[in-house]
User: Fold this.
Amino acid sequence: MNTSTDRIERQIHIKAARSKVWRALANAESFGEWFGVALKGKHFVAGEPCEGNITYPGYEHLTWKVTVERVEPERLLSFRWHPYAVDPNVDYSQEPATLVSFELEETAEGTLLRLVESGFDQIPAHRRLEAFRMNSSGWDEQMTNIDAYVATH
Assistant:
């Protein structure tokens, strides 16, 4: 495993209490608002799937599907998904999924949010690089999105 190609790591310091950042992250409806997916009436429950229509412009024809791995209140939320699964004519269900983990750490100034998406080395070679590249830039945008969401809600 080459960690430079197998995982994406991001972190952001959010000037808000950990409980507030946790609500934006672990409440499925709130998550959907900043992430760009319609999750009204949905919940994140460990071991259960969660899905909704993507609302991000240009991707509205897709369904966001994850299986929630762990929910540890105010500390960790993780799920598995098929990265950059954007061709509606392809069945990605037989491919290995990556693991997305959000970890929260309280700091004197607010909350440190760490994101790790790992498992790209297991993605089929013909789509691995594009999935890594697109998710890498996507996570840059999503970290900004959650920061803005927490600041305004």
